[in-house]
Amino acid sequence: MKSHLMFKIAIHYALRNIIRTPVRSFFTIFSIAMIISMYTLLTVIANSFTGQINQVVKAGDIDIIVQSKFSATPLSSSISQKTAETLTNNPDIKSLTSIVLGKKRLPDKSIAYVFGISDFPAIARKLGLTLTGGHLFQPNHHEMMMAERLMRNKHMKLGDQISLSEEKPYTVTGRYNSWISFFNSSIILSLEDARKLLHKPDKNNMLFISLHDPVKTNSIITKINQEYDSLSAVKSSDFTGTMGALKNMFYLSDIIAVITLIVASAILINTFLMAINERTREIGILNAIGWTKKMIVYIFVIESLLLALIGGIIGFFISLGMLHYIQHAYSDISFYLPQSLDLKVFGYSILMCVFIGVVSAIFPALYASKISIAKALRDG
Asked: Where are the alpha helices (DSSP H) in the chain?
């Protein structure tokens, strides 16, 4: 039998079997869709923040990143301004940018991320922060810039005032956009204002260092770590690997991938074992009219692939909807989220579904192909 004819027969047979057991097919597809959607969403969240940090590092031409020792994330890091000023005296350092960041609850009880950046105009150019309206804030004038997306979600406009502390409210003087997702869910102030607002006087969360000669990166890192017991300096390219929370997110992503494969495969295997018990007579008839074991295995694999792929495609679109909802409903989580799910993520989901479909069908199909004609006709 020619391969294209066999394929048409297998597709027809698979679709017929899916349709004739609609309830079971629905719950199988629905289960796979939910598993794939959760896997897709959690994986992109785990990868998104790391990718954005790497973009910041590359775009900012940063050689070394410094945070306090044993801090799991930049939010828990604390570096004194005196230490930062001492580091700037090193003749090998071309520039040092101080960063203060933290969470702040807005009047509507949602959470926004606050950034204070020294020498903002210079770092803004490097990070692709584009002013789309208004003007830059003035230090010590209770002025701030707000992300365009955040302003849209909060129904705010330029000139509006917002209370972030017990002092007088801050005025939104500028609206900006960025190709880095977490800046699009944030508020940016001068370094001095951010320190006051976040109650971090003379403190920094991170230091971005650029060197005159990047070849000296390793030696400067060694020198900083030896001279300052409270600091941890790393190469910018190694920074994401030092963040405990991100490591946990990667481990979680790997665990979720394994669980996804196991659970989805178990669901499909269970589906086909039940189907084989119901189709014993049918399988016997196929054997009797000359179908080979290979052909029987083939049609079960095609049916499994169809169920897995339909579930996977539906699951991907469910994850799109979930991502859109989370971005608008939970501004504090949107800090970690990508702008959208790209075709690469869709490709990974489809590959996973193909793997699940093939693996899940092999054992039941081999079992079905070994049923003897006499037994199948007698038991059926």
From this structure: 3-20, 22-59, 81-88, 120-127, 148-153, 191-197, 217-227, 244-278, 280-288, 293-329, 343-369, 373-379
